[in-house]
Amino acid sequence: MRIFTTHMSKTIKLKKGFDINLVGEADKKLAEAVQPETFALKPTDFPGMQMPKLMIKEGDDVKAGSPIFYDKKSEQVLFTAPVSGEIVEVKRGAKRKILEIKILADKEISYESFSQYSISDLNNLSREQLQEQMLKSGVWPQIAQRPYGVIADHSDTPKAIFISAFDSHPLAPDYDFIFKGQEKEFQAGLDVLRKFTPGRVHLNMDAKGEVSPLFTQAKDVELNKISGPHPAGNVGVQIHHIDPINKGELVWTVTPFGVIQIGKLFLDGKYDASTTIAIAGSEVKNPQYYKTYTGACINKFIEDNLNTDHVRVISGNVLTGNKIEKDGYIGFAHNMITIIPEGDYFELFGWIKPTVNKLSFQRAFGLLANTKKKFTVDTNEHGEPRAFVQTGVFEKVMPMDILPTYLLKAILAEDFDEMEALGIYEVIEEDLALCEYVDVSKHNIQEILREGLSLIQYS
Amino acid sequence: MKFLRDGLDKVKPHFEKGGKWEKYYYIFEAHETLLFVPNHTTHKVGAQIKDTIDMKRLMMTVIIAMLPCLLFGMWNVGHQHFIALGQEAVFLDKILIGAIQVLPIVVVSYAVGLGTEFAFSVFRQHPINEGFLVTGMLIPLVMPATIPLWQVAMATIFAVIIAKEAFGGTGMNILNVALTARAFLYFAYPSQISGEVWTYLEDGAQTVAGFSGATPLALGAEAVANSTNMMTAMNDFGQGWSDNIYSFSNMFFGFMPGSIGETSTLMCLIGAAILVMTGVGSWKIIFSVFAGAFGMGLLLNAFGANGFMEMPAHYHLVIGGLAFGAVFMASDPVTAAQTETGKWIYGFMIGILTVIIRVLNPAYPEGIMLAILFMNVFAPLIDFYVVKANKKRRLQRATV
């Protein structure tokens, strides 16, 4: 049995990690209101999604919060429309796999109505009542579970819930700026989530920066402070140091965006997918923030806003995001678009030329460069795939008591016992993203990890 | 440089699938990527940016770290040559004699080794790894200048095939490749790599009166066998033709006979500084080899049963190949322990074993080669226990 000591809020100092400083941070200002015409839901945005079943067809009209699809393995969790409008296209790929469900948005958004409560009423609701509304409204996918980093199973009771109150990824949006003024909704969201666990709700704040009152004033939660370089903001790293996940245990994680959205659902009685995203990166003329809705088409934000044409558009950040087209849609869980130069060029003797303009964590390249300054980085792989040779470097960017090389080798060998013993339950892709970045042998580490997680999850 | 790129692009299709030389694709690729960092970009998902470092840079850093040893070694081959002849010579003459002896060994090592690698890339259809760039330089540096070239070729082929390719290539090998080459010669052709082979002399050359090619390690073995005082022997050695050749400072700087690259502890330390500053070599391993040897030396001093045991412990750090082995061989990441705790144990054991083999086993005057190979074999076991401790911490956490 776990002994619940009276541990108070924790302060955790991390030393390992690496802050990647890039050119093109978003200015803390909101761009003129431009709304994209279309929005999309992408079933591929949800790890663990097995068989999405459509509940609409092309030509249907939907409201914000109307169900669009569900996953056959968990039929009660509905994925709903972020905006009202007409379903204009269901884009499919190979084997008719659903890629995007596009909605042509109304000028004025209309909402499905859900039950509305005052803050005091909210506290009287049971878990079942809360859960029912969360499942059908579309906010449930905001709750992820560890292990595996997939959407939480509503029949589970997690031992604790973790919320990271800062994002330490390169060029990440400033939470104080994007969540300003939503204290009430945030607290309501916390009050709801507290009903789902007998354990604690941990809110983990950046110890070094100025923290938004949204977080510091939060009540009835454990306030922990974390300091250190990236990945200090990763909720997985925080869990490892606050209350680690052991075999058979389950925790949930929610982003502040998700908490606020849950709060709004109950206070306003609607599925509110409005969000503030950052458009950042060295190739953006005016890196700044935009108010829009989940799943926005990004073309309006980057039109006439690029320094060069040959760019990589990334939904999310440079470490964990994914490539999208210039007229693509921002991912469900993302709150930023990063645009950097595409790196598809040959460079003569690029591996040996001395330079201080290229970013490297590894001192064999970056000895002379000052990594505190801001760099322009492109998408070149800088090398070819090789066997594992270098040792000890992953450990320098991994502030967890986990041996990444051994874990990866266990996954490649499909050795289930080893994966488990080496801590696979404690990590998801983002926790090993820096290892992938620094790897001299250029392994696709995040991909390998997801294969391992899937092997264990579905075996 | 566009013509280079254009030229490569023109011949590239011949090497690609369906081309007339498709079997040789990896040989082409090795050359192409040596000239140009390829235009590969990051995948659609996963890290969208990658560190600028690659394997070539990593390996080249090791080669740069070895250059002081190589250049000093070339000079020292000439220096020792003229000492043995009892002649004065200028810097340029010494380095010229040295270069004539050393460069062919380097060329043979690289040509034969890379040839073997290319052949395997064709047979096995795997990319050519940069590992041999380092091995190819290490092999000459641990050979005596007098080594016959055909033996260098034999040893290189043996090491690349048996120590590396048989295990699946760079990254998979258990034994340090360059040391395997040396061990091969040591056991197959001992007369060319042990005894007084360290000083290069032309056939029929007249050496200076009193000359001996014995190394400090040989003097140590003699002290054990004949119960003589080793320190007296060292201090007296070279009297009349090279006074104080085996003084501590002389040995630290490396003005003494030995394998081409290993005589100078100072040059090895410069190499170590480069490796540690760039993060390419593990300071934990390098430091702990020295610490292990010094500690074991002190322990033997306490017993003091014979002349070699009585030799001050710090002498162990400058005689023989300890420094070179610690800096360039023990720290090979593939064959060393791979866990951070394991690196301490691994290095420390190499230091201890080196001194034990030197002092307590006079059949093998030099211990570092066998100590490293021995610990190469044990490194996975050390890691096994370190990893097991990690797993155990995780399990214990669960049951608290």
* Domain tally of chain B: 3
Protein chain pair with the most extensive contact, residues per chain? A-B, 77 and 61 residues
Head-to-tail CA distance between termini of chain A: 27 Å
Radius of gyration of chain B: 23 Å
| Tally of individual helices of chain B | 16
The H/E string of chain B reads HHEHHHHHHHHHHHHHH
Estimate the helix proportion of chain A, in percent: 10-25%
Mean pLDDT of chain B: 92
Measured as a percent range, the helix fraction of chain B is: 55-70%
CATH class of the domain at 11-26 and 114-268 in chain A: Alpha Beta
Classify the fold: give the CATH topology of the domain at 11-26 and 114-268 in chain A. Answer: Rossmann fold
The biggest beta sheet of chain B reads: none
Low-confidence stretches of chain B: none
Strand count, sense and barrel status of the largest sheet of chain A are: 7 strands, mixed
How many strands appear in the DSSP assignment of chain A? Answer: 20
CATH architecture of the domain at 11-26 and 114-268 in chain A: 3-Layer(aba) Sandwich
Strand content of chain A: 15-25%
Strand-pairing-aware structural class of chain A? alpha/beta
Helical segment tally of chain A?
Answer: 14
Tell me what you see in this structure.
The complex is a heterodimer of chains A (459) and B (400). With 459 residues, chain A is α/β, with parallel strands linked by helices. Helices cover 22% and strands 21% of the residues of chain A. Chain A has 14 helices and 20 strands. In chain A, the strands form 4 sheets. Chain A has a 7-stranded mixed beta sheet, sandwiched between helices. In chain A, helix 5 (213-216) links the parallel strand 12 and strand 13. The longest helix of chain A has 13 residues, at 256-268. Chain A is globular, with a radius of gyration of 22 Å. Mean pLDDT of chain A is 93; it is low at 1-6. Chain B has 400 residues and is mainly α. Helix content of chain B is 63%, strand content 0%. In chain B, helix 4 (91-124) packs parallel to helix 6, helix 6 crosses helix 7 and helix 11 (265-277) runs parallel beside helix 14 (322-329). The interface between A and B is large, with 77 and 61 residues.
